Amino acid sequence: MLLDFKMVYFNADGHPSSMCGNGGRCIVRFAQALGIVTESAQFEAVDGIHHATLTTDAIHLHMSDVSMVEKHATHSFTNTGSPHHVQLTDNVDDVDVFTIGKRLRYELYGNEGANINFVEPATANHYKVRTYERGVEDETLSCGTGVTAVALAMHATGNASGNEITLHTPGGDLQVRFQVNGAGYNNIWLIGPATAVFKGNMAW
C-alpha cells in the first residue's frame, strides 16, 4: 500500500499520543499546503491506516472501526483510536471540566486514563461537547476522537437517530457519519474545517 506520509503525534505533556482526530485532519491540510497531496490522502497513524478526502471547506477523515460501545448506568465508554468516557449532563457550559474530568480520568481508568467527554443535547442529532483530555491534563477546545466517541455513544444508547450527528465544541462544529455494523460501527468519518492560522520559519 502506497502511503503519502506517517503522522506521529505528541501530547502537551511531551509523550507520544494515541490517535488524534483533529490532528489527523490538520496534518492532511498541511500536507496539501506542502504539495504532498491534493484531493485525497492516505497516511499511517498509531492506530493504523487512515484515508482522507479534501475539499475547500472541510477535511473528511476516515476513522478506525469501533467494535462496540460499552453502556453503563452513568456513562458510556468506547475507543475511537483513543479511549473515551462519554457522560450526559445538564448545562454543559457550567460544568467544571477540569476538576470533574481530572477526577474521573484517574478514579475510573487508573494511570493510563481516558479522555472525559461531557455532553448536552442541543437539538435532534446535535450535541454540545466539552472534553478533558489526558496528556493535556486539561480541557481542550475540540477533540476529534472525542466527538466521534460521543456520536457513536449517543446512537448506541438511543439518544440519537440516523447516521449523521453534529457536535458543537468550544473550538467549532464537527460532523460524524457512520454505518452500524452489529454491535459496532464502521465507515466512520470525522468531518470539519482545517484552516491555516499562521506560519513561521524555524532556524536549526
How would you describe what is shown here?
It is a single chain. By secondary structure, this protein is of the alpha+beta class. Helix content is 18%, strand content 36%. It folds into two domains: 5-62, Diaminopimelate Epimerase, Chain A, domain 1, CATH 3.10.310.10; 70-188, Diaminopimelate Epimerase, Chain A, domain 1 (Roll), CATH 3.10.310.10. The radius of gyration is 17 Å and the shape is globular. It starts with a strand and ends in a 12-residue tail after the last strand.
Shape: globular
The total domain count is 2
The DSSP helix count reads 3
Largest sheet: 13 strands, mixed
CATH homologous superfamily identity of the largest domain: Diaminopimelate Epimerase, Chain A, domain 1
Measured between the Cα atoms of the first and last residue, the distance is: 34 Å
Please provide the ordered H/E string of secondary-structure elements: EHEEEEEEHEEEHEEE
Structural class: alpha+beta
Please count the beta strands (DSSP E, at least 2 residues each). Answer: 13
Percent helix range: 10-25%
Give the CATH class of the largest domain: Alpha Beta
Please supply descriptive tags for the structure shown above.
204 residues, alpha+beta, Diaminopimelate Epimerase, Chain A, domain 1, 13 strands, 18% helix, globular
Nutshell version of this structure?
With 204 residues, this protein is of the alpha+beta class.
Question: Helices, strands, pairings?
Answer:
Blueprint: E1 5-6, H1 21-33, E2 40-45, E3 48-54, E4 59-62, E5 70-71, E6 76-79, E7 83-88, H2 97-107, E8 115-121, E9 126-133, E10 138-140, H3 144-156, E11 164-169, E12 172-181, E13 184-192
Parallel strand pairs: 1-2, 7-8, 9-11
Antiparallel strand pairs: 2-3, 3-4, 4-13, 5-6, 6-7, 8-9, 9-10, 11-12, 12-13
